[in-house]
Design goal:
The protein is α+β, with helices and mostly antiparallel strands. The protein has 13 helices and twelve strands. The strands form three sheets. A five-stranded antiparallel beta sheet has the order 2-1-5-4-3, sandwiched between helices.
Length: about 375
């Protein structure tokens, strides 16, 4: 790779790769391998305190390469410890680390180079923290020879771009992790939550909303992913709520821009829809950007806290927690006794213990207290 065009194309590929998590950089590293006339190009992380490391991504994922790589990285780290001033963008060659002797002759390498055709290597420090150093290493075999000044010069030209791409990749990965965590939190809510644009198109929704919409009991999605309700009149009302959000962009997020009831053909109690602004529509050029949050409440759904929550929070036994949950579901004591296969005396004894442990005195007070507890453990699944 000698031309300016080749280098610019490789730089472009670096930034294309930046959109991927680092462990998916194998294809890009293969291009680096070809460009540098190397046997392999690997990104690995070295622990600055322990003599070990691990591969993040590599152009050569063959078993024979990975077999020795982890042990080899530990040896490389021993040599890197001699370089106290490791900094981002720094170039290091194997010959520099081992004092100028051929790598094959270094006793500390225990024959690794000759057994694995890794006689020469050069490394670029792409990230440095107090705990770790992330390094891109290119390896050549004996026949190809050491990395010459021209190849090292190319590496130096690529160094700042690799550093930026590395940071971009990490930031995107972090953003995706935050988005995933937020989605899990929304999925744990008992109410349906939807983010919609000004055309009633649903941009995102949580698990409860998906369940409600799939039931097609007064509200669902049309084939274009837009909210569809039982009548055009109700659709117009929801459209008016959205218009209110648009015309009053300074409404605080989370404050309802309006409320509407949606009757259900099944005869069950109406859904309640709250519309709340997210941000001013003018703040984004994306025509499908969400401008409102729609909270969809099903009064027929009575979520209860998990029994383990009651056991941990109030010290209830498993039997006491099961009784408390049945009471939260509206069951009478006699029905609860039948479901639990115990006598009324046992149920009354359990209820007395529940009142004592929760510092309540009546069933209504107990139910009100328990209904304020978290109602889902789905956030912690997987």
């Amino acid at each position: 790779m000698n031309t300016k065009k080749d280098i610019l194309e490789l730089i472009g590929e670096i930034y294309n790769t930046a959109t991927l998590p680092k462990h998916q950089w194998g294809s890009f590293l293969k291009l680096m391998e070809i460009s540098l006339d190397a046997r392999s190009v690997t990104i690995f992380t070295q622990d600055r305190d322990e003599l070990d490391g691990h591969v993040v991504a590599s152009s050569s994922l063959a078993p024979h390469y990975l077999y020795w790589c982890d042990d080899y990285l530990g040896t490389v780290n021993t040599m890197l410890h001699r370089l106290s001033d490791l900094r981002q963008g720094m170039m290091i060659t194997g010959e520099e680390c081992i004092g100028g002797m051929p790598m094959a002759e270094h006793p500390g390498l225990d024959g690794f180079p000759s057994r694995n055709h890794a006689f020469h290597w050069t490394a670029l420090v792409v990230k440095v923290t107090d705990e770790t150093v992330d390094i891109l290493m290119a390896v050549r075999d004996e026949a190809t020879g050491p990395f010459d000044d021209q190849t090292l010069g190319i590496c130096r030209l690529l160094a700042p771009h690799l550093g930026r791409a590395y940071r971009i990749s990490e930031q995107l990965t972090t953003n995706q992790s935050h988005k995933t965590a937020l989605a899990k939190m929304l999925d744990a809510l008992p109410d349906g939550v939807m983010f919609i644009d000004d055309t009633l198109k649903v941009v995102e929704l949580n698990r409860t909303a998906r369940y409600i919409l799939r039931s097609d009991d007064g509200v669902t999605l049309d084939q274009d992913g837009r909210l569809r309700v039982v009548s055009s009149t109700l659709r117009a009302k929801i459209g008016a709520l959205l218009a209110n959000v648009l015309l009053n962009p300074d409404l605080p997020t989370g404050i309802p821009g309006g409320v509407v009831a949606i009757p259900r053909p099944s005869g069950k109690r109406d859904y309640t829809v709250h519309v709340s602004p997210l941000r001013s529509f003018e703040e984004t050029s994306d025509q499908h950007a969400p401008i409102a949050a729609v909270f969809l409440t099903d009064p027929e759904y009575h979520p209860t806290p998990p029994s383990k929550t009651l056991e941990a929070r109030y010290g209830l036994t498993r039997s006491e927690a099961n009784l408390a949950l049945l009471l939260c579901q509206g069951k009478e004591l006699r029905n609860a006794a039948d479901e639990l296969y115990v006598s009324m005396n046992t149920v009354r004894s359990h209820l007395k213990q529940i009142f004592s442990k929760t510092n309540t005195h009546r069933q209504g007070e107990l139910i009100a207290l328990l209904n304020r507890l978290p109602t889902s453990t789905r956030l912690f699944e997987n």
